[in-house]
Write a structure and sequence with these properties.
heterodimer, A: mainly alpha, B: mainly alpha, Cytochrome C Oxidase, Chain A, two-stranded antiparallel ribbon, 20 helices, 2 strands, about 0% strand, globular, Cyt_c_oxidase_su4_prok (chain A), transmembrane (chain A), transmembrane helix (chain A), cell membrane (chain A)
């Protein structure tokens, strides 16, 4: 509870906190740079008019990487205390993908298998 | 703030208190009363069905009305009776079992209950407004798109509103159990009812979105001119079946898992033993929850998915029998060698084991896809799912009602009447549904309003109807029991069963509105039993008495739900008589006011949400002095009792 954290931090605690925050900021900046770079690659691939069959899977792969970076570094999934959120997201994704695959196989394509 | 203190609060004050409450114990009572009301409605519908089928060629109900009655019986029992009644027990017990002062989001808890109440009322108003839904509780799209009139619209909108409430409550319980456990209450020390509630709530979180989507597609097809399920416009009705059963199968585990939890508590309490194989029980619960998502197509074996798909789903379905079997054996081992006390809840629990196993065995029979082609759409299916839902869930609800009644109301139901009720209900249940297995195997189809004389169905149907009447008598006895107990109003003290093992029985009855004056410290599994054996029988405190932060009561959840209820009518009548509407409603008189009602309803909802968002409500503190005074008073009362 927020209202209970009123105690003064000691000198070394403060120093440790500063160090942690600097590290966090550095990670944020690096992942931000990386994401811009990934976006740039995707744009470049399209702009260079390389073969579609080659570009599409790569762009989807990059997009997936972006999502992972987003979740882990910007939305704090890498931090402690997010185990359940992580579990839920992964299980939810597993179910959702299973349902979509199922729908494609037995509803959309529609041939009995 | 509006804690009504003192006994002589007026009716208006009590009503206002319940309309605005965010206290989980009072919300449990709202769930119990509303769920009980809908249970009675669903029961009356069941009686009508059995009255119609008691004799051949009966014209007690017309064919159309029979369809409406079976649809409403199923929908009411699943969505408006079984689930809310389970939510009543979850609300009443789970926060106390984990040592929490309330659920994680008290406001959302209140919103959940009012959405359910308004959704249920909306659905049942269809009886008075031109006919109830008549496409079965599954409401398969090929039927429901063609169903004339507004019946199906009531189903879609009513379920959408009630379903939103259920989803909110599910999220609430997941968060509560994960984040609000008392110090020392590790995951592997949680009572089994808490565990099953957690898994059921997770299932709700994952299973309700597909239903919401399915019902949204149906709403848009019927009310706003889309073509998701309209085959001549390129739609596909199979999508509804998949979406419905992706929700529908986990839904039956949402019902049965908390029931398993209630029985686990009852078995260990009245065998005066620790639950046998606790960790295996937890593992089995989680596994059932996980498998529950992999088996939805076993409801659709005859749709024509193909042999490979059928085989996969058949195998996955049979796999569920393994963790369920683990549970059954663990319960038997819990009773084995225990010092058994035959109370009403224990009798229900003992009756549950063979009844549920019978339902499980027929389930395995149907899981064999080739055999299912024979059972499909026959009374065998009806017998199977009533064996698991009545023999499992309803037994648990009745057992739980007797077991947790002291916690909810502070009084004890009469054991004598309770045992009479249990015996009559048990006999009536088997009398009704056992014979239906044979009816199914003899070829009687389900959902058909009558049958001809001379087909050999007469005697069996009569027996079934007599059994149904016995179940009704048992429920009436329960009602008499409840009324007698409430009128007598003999208060009981802490741990009224004398053998309470978990944290909720350590609390004074009536439970104070802040639950725990001190945060409790949990030293092991079955916290209270541990303290009785090793300590002085009281739960140690984790810290000193401190001021407690409490949420304020709020009328906003009621208004948000009411807004959706109003908007529902607007949406429902929107397509009436419009040229683009589906055939089912295109010939009805146009309702020009529908759009304005829709807008007004949504406005009420969004303005209420805005008020909630922009007006800060920081709650209040219960001062330390009040808590200490309460503790002193409690101590004096206990000394007086000795």
């Amino acid at each position: 509870m927020a209202e209970q954290n009123h105690e003064q931090l000691t000198e070394s605690q403060l120093k440790y906190l500063r160090m942690e925050r600097t590290k966090e900021m550095r990670i944020q900046m690096i992942s931000f740079g990386l994401m811009i770079f990934l976006t740039f690659i995707a744009f470049a691939l399209v702009a260079l008019e390389i073969d579609k069959n080659f570009v599409i899977p790569i762009v989807i792969g990059l997009a997936f990487l972006q999502v992972v970076l987003q979740f882990y570094y910007f939305m704090h999934m890498k931090d402690k205390g997010h185990e359940f959120a992580k579990l839920f997201i992964l299980v939810g994704m597993y179910f959702a993908i299973a349902f979509v695959v199922c729908f494609i196989m037995i509803v959309w394509i529609g041939n009995p298998i | 703030m509006a804690q009504v203190k003192g006994k002589k609060a007026g009716f208006g004050a009590v009503l206002w208190d319940y309309l605005t409450t965010v206290d989980h114990k009072k919300i449990a009572i709202i769930y119990l009363v509303a769920g009980g009301f809908f249970f009675a409605l669903g029961g009356i519908e069941a009686m009508l069905i059995r009255a119609q089928l008691a004799v051949p060629n009966n014209d007690f109900l017309s064919a159309g009305l029979f369809n409406e009655v079976i649809t409403m019986h199923g929908t009411t029992m699943i969505f408006l009776a079984a689930m809310p009644l389970l939510f009543a027990f979850m609300n009443a017990v789970v926060p106390l079992q984990i040592g929490a002062r309330d659920v994680a989001f008290p406001f959302l808890n209140s919103l959940g209950v009012w959405l359910f109440v308004f959704g249920g009322i909306f659905l049942n108003l269809s009886w008075f407004l031109g006919g109830a839904p008549d496409a079965g509780w599954t409401s398969y799209a090929s039927l429901s798109i063609a169903s004339p009139g507004h019946g199906i619209d009531f189903y879609a909108v009513g379920l959408q509103i009630a379903g939103a409430g259920t989803l909110i409550s599910g999220i609430n319980f997941v968060t509560t159990i994960i984040t609000m456990r008392a110090p020392g209450m590790t995951y592997m020390r949680m009572p089994l009812f808490t565990w099953t509630t957690l898994v059921a709530a997770i299932l709700i979180v994952f299973a309700f979105p597909p239903l919401t989507i399915g019902v949204f597609l149906l709403m848009f097809d019927r009310m706003f001119g889309s073509n998701f399920f309209i085959v001549e416009a390129g739609g596909n009705t199979i999508i509804w079946e998949h979406l419905f059963w992706i929700f529908g199968h986990p839904e039956v585990y949402v019902l049965i898992l908390p029931a398993f939890g209630i029985f686990s508590e009852i078995f260990s309490t009245f065998s005066r033993k620790r639950l046998f194989g606790y960790s295996a029980m937890v593992f089995a619960t989680v596994l059932i929850g996980f498998f529950g998502f992999m088996v939805w197509a076993h409801h659709m074996f005859t749709v024509g998915l193909g042999p490979t798909a059928n085989a996969i789903f058949a195998l996955a379905t049979m796999a569920i029998a393994v963790p369920t079997g683990i549970k059954i054996f663990n319960w038997i081992a819990t009773i084995w060698g225990g010092s058994i006390e035959f109370t009403t809840p224990m009798l229900y629990a003992l009756a549950f084991i063979p009844s549920f196993v019978m339902g499980g065995v027929t389930g395995i029979m149907q899981a064999a896809a080739p055999a299912d082609y024979q059972y499909h759409d026959s009374y065998f299916i009806v017998a199977h799912f009533h064996y698991v839902i009545v023999g499992g869930v309803v037994f648990a609800l009745l057992a739980g009602l007797h077991f947790y009644w002291p916690i909810i109301t502070g009084t004890m139901l009469s054991e004598k009447l309770g045992k009479i009720e249990m015996v009559i209900f048990f006999i009536g249940f088997h009398c009704t549904f056992l014979i239906q297995h044979w009816l199914g195997l003899w070829g009687m189809p389900r959902r058909v309003f009558t049958y001809l004389d001379g087909q050999g169905y007469n005697t069996a149907n009569m027996i079934s109807s007599i059994g149904a009447a016995l179940m009704a008598i048992a429920v009436i006895i329960l009602l008499i029991n409840i009324i007698k107990t409430l009128v007598k109003n003999e208060k009981v003290g802490t741990d009224p069963w004398g053998d309470g093992r978990t944290l909720e029985w350590s609390l004074p009855i009536p439970t104070p509105y802040y639950n725990f004056a001190n945060t409790p410290l949990i030293r092991g599994i079955d916290a209270l039993a541990l303290e009785k054996e090793e300590g002085d029988g009281t739960i140690p405190a984790a810290g000193p008495v401190e001021a407690i932060h409490m949420p304020n009561n709020s009328f906003i959840p009621f208004m948000i739900s009411f807004g959706l209820f109003v908007a529902g009518f607007g949406a429902l009548y929107f397509a009436s008589g419009k040229p683009w509407a589906i055939d089912a409603v295109a010939n009805l008189p146009e309702k020009p006011w529908a759009l304005y009602v829709l807008i007004a309803g949504l406005a009420i909802t969004f303005i209420s949400m805005g008020v909630r968002s922009w007006k800060d409500d920081l709650g209040y503190y219960i001062p330390k002095e009040e808590l200490e005074a309460d503790l002193r008073e409690l101590e004096a009362r206990e000394r007086g009792a000795k």
